[in-house]
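2024-03-11 09:14:02 DEBUG pipeline.ingest accepted 1 chain
2024-03-11 09:14:02 DEBUG pipeline.ingest length=171
2024-03-11 09:14:03 DEBUG pipeline.predict start
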Amino acid sequence: MARSRKRKFSDEDDAFDENGILKDGRSFRIPMRDSDALQRDVAQFADQNRQQRDANRVTDASGGTAGLHKPGFRIAATAKRDLDCYDSYDFDLSQQWRRDVAPYGAYPYTAAAEGCACTLDGAPGTLVKQGNWLVCTPDDDDDSTSDARSVDQREAAYQKYDSDLRDAWRR
């Protein structure tokens, strides 16, 4: 079994090159009483590097780095995000159900458009104010009878369809 030997250098100046850098394979011991001040300098240097690195760091839209490989926004880590805009948007979305909901096919109310002509399923009508909306109402009064006629026609067509299916096996 081969025994490794540590090389001991008698001359400390021989361990450094002409630029004062420790040569390969050499070591330099620092006494414990001297290492405390060195540790403070190293910690300050590390803090400066961390601040500089954080200034250049990019995060995803949620503020982390786990989603950088996914599509989406990229934001500088030190950029101030405008949370007031997000909060107001979120509040508007959460309170939207409480607002006045427009009837189907309604338009926002304007005084100039009230009473203007419109069409409702191809039939002539007039824009009438209902709440904060303009709704197209049909002009003719006999519309209720035409609705009843169309319902009767649909029922008759369904009855014919039903009887055809019922008697299809006899053919």
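2024-03-11 09:14:41 DEBUG pipeline.report The two ends are 104 Å apart (CA to CA).
2024-03-11 09:14:41 DEBUG pipeline.predict end
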